[in-house]
Amino acid sequence: MSVSDGGTWAKVSEVFRGDSAVKALASGVGVPDDSVRMFLSLLAGYPLAFMYRGLLYGRSSTLQHIYFIICGVYMGYFNFGIDVLHSFVNLILIYLLTRIGAGRWWSLPAAFLINTGYLVLGFASSSKNGEYYRIEWTTSHCVLILKLTGVVADLYDGSKPEEKLSPDQKETAIKKTPTILELMGHCYFFGAFLIGPQCSIRRYLTLVKGGFAGRGDKVPNSVAAGLTKLIVGLFYILTMLILMLITPTDYFFIKDFYDLFLPIKCLYIIVWGRYVLSRYIACWHISEGICILTGLPYNGEDEKGNPTWNSMENIKLYEFETSFSLYGLTKAFNVQTSTWMVKYLMKRLRFLGNKELSKFITFAYLALWHGLYTGYFNTFFLEFMMITAETFILSRLKGRIGPLPSGRLNSVWLWVFFRLFYCQFFWGYALVSFELLQFKKYMMVYSSLYFIGHLSHPLACLFVYLNRSKKSAKAKD
């Protein structure tokens, strides 16, 4: 290709990716270009979903697959440029695997190896190992490899007798190898290609066959539910922008933070953690709303006969905002990814004969799935350690503490405040390394907090254990 040809291609790429408009908008708002591209892509999903409802729902499956592929690939190109081709290469590798080894015992380990290997090589060669995190092709590739691995696992489950399958495996098992068009449509579905949520290929194929419209409906009766998710997502975007001004991440790199009184630092971590969480809550709600408009998350009807659309929610918002335990927060957060990890990884490690070891391996894989930064591994180590300690302590104190103290109202509010402080601080504490990523950066913050989050839970476990041991010894005497 000549220099002039390269210049022409660059100009065409600038037009198709809207470089000038994106840069102007990013400069005006004060956020990075990649964040603006992602947000615009998520918003674009809504008119695309309405077009799908009006023109394609219930029609030719082939046309639906092509529509999803075109929309998803363009979204990928808009965000990542020519790097969107990585998704196609990985997809073809797994398609060939399904043709060669569908239902074979070795197909699932091979899928994990191919998909995780491709992602890790992407991490190693991308700027994710640079000074700052950026949204790049590996961001959506994290979502993609779970879909592709899930397809291979569902094919393997479909090859086994139904009586040997667990209830959740029966829901997603498939007996027929997907065509290349079906696999691409599933992977590039525009509502979930960039940031999820996860869904099985069996659910996707049910959608294109018109299986989620509900009784007597030509299209899914899901507009109100989908737009509600959008409104909630925009509310959390606004919350994020406000909290970003109050507790910017850059403040961790200024001497003033380290001069603060320890309780004030803890309060900063709590508010800053809410800023970080608002970003994820917002994006997941907006993405889920797109899926709901298409009908993909259909989950049957409630007791009044109204359709429900919650089978793909990535955060159980009420449970998350009202939880009084770290386990409760974790259970309500990033639900679809956690469900995938339990179903396709942790439960398939039962042959190890140790539940805690299976959990540890799953947490380690989850950290690797996010990236190669040490910050990810520290965050998931903290999560594993805190939840394990919390479970141990509560099991030892079972029957000795109540959910709320009786008595005056102010004592109740004091208890609620304590539990909220406990949850929000330690959750924000774990997020420090998840956001700062690099060892030297997050260690500066943790050392200024005297490693409270690293030490408190093991020490609490030790205290409870020794206290119970003393009481047991006295009882024997």
TrEMBL record:
Keyword Ribonucleoprotein part of the UniProt annotation: no
Any matching Pfam family: MBOAT
Assigned GO CC terms: endoplasmic reticulum; membrane
Annotated GO MF terms: 1-acylglycerophosphocholine O-acyltransferase activity; lysophospholipid acyltransferase activity
Localization terms from the record: Endoplasmic reticulum; Membrane
Keyword field: Acyltransferase, Endoplasmic reticulum, Lipid biosynthesis, Lipid metabolism, Membrane, Phospholipid biosynthesis, Phospholipid metabolism, Transferase, Transmembrane, Transmembrane helix
Topology class, membrane: Multi-pass membrane protein
GO BP field: lipid modification; phosphatidylcholine biosynthetic process
TM ranges: 36-55, 67-97, 103-124, 230-254, 260-277, 357-373, 409-432, 444-466
InterPro entries: LPLAT_7/PORCN-like, MBOAT_fam
Broad class of enzyme this protein falls into: transferase
Its EC number(s): 2.3.1.23, 2.3.1.n6
Pathway assigned to this chain's UniProt record: Lipid metabolism; phospholipid metabolism; Phospholipid metabolism
PANTHER family for the chain: LYSOPHOSPHOLIPID ACYLTRANSFERASE 5, PORCUPINE
Family: Belongs to the membrane-bound acyltransferase family.
Protein name: Lysophospholipid acyltransferase 5
Lineage: Eukaryota, Metazoa, Spiralia, Lophotrochozoa, Mollusca
Gene behind this protein: LOC115224736
